[in-house]
Design goal:
Strand order of the largest sheet: 1-2
Oligomer: single chain
Distance between the termini: 33 Å
Number of helices: 5
């Protein structure tokens, strides 16, 4: 509740983070809307909104009567999202440069992340 983002956005971001970092694997089932809303003590409509957006963004897919599952993201191209992330990266690099951070450190971090791969396997 202390985060400035809406609850459904926090849920989306949380699941995206879990998926990107390999905590949730391809075809793994997400908690039901009811289960998650009870655990988080929030309105089920908030969870449903987050789940719909995750599906629209290609992170999950739903199976009628079964629930939501993690989609395969390998090789998936989303030019709009990529451009948004490049904007964020550009802003971060400019701010780090302004703060006097070393370019080599930034390059080392990017190289390290790239070597890790997208998902922990």
């Amino acid at each position: 509740y202390k985060d400035g983002k809406s609850l459904h956005q926090q849920i989306e971001d949380g699941f995206k983070n879990l998926i990107i970092n390999g905590v949730l694997q391809e075809n793994e089932q997400l908690p039901s809307v009811r289960e998650l809303s009870v655990n988080l003590t929030i309105n089920p409509n908030t969870v449903q909104r987050a789940y719909k957006q995750l599906e629209a963004d290609g992170y999950t897919y739903s199976v009628q009567g079964k629930g939501s599952f993690v989609a395969s993201l390998k090789g998936q191209k989303d030019e709009k999202r990529a451009n948004e992330l490049y904007d964020i990266l550009t802003l971060a690099v400019k701010e780090l440069k302004f703060l006097g951070e070393d370019k080599k450190i930034m390059e080392t971090i990017i190289d390290s992340i790239y070597k890790e791969g997208v998902c922990a396997e």
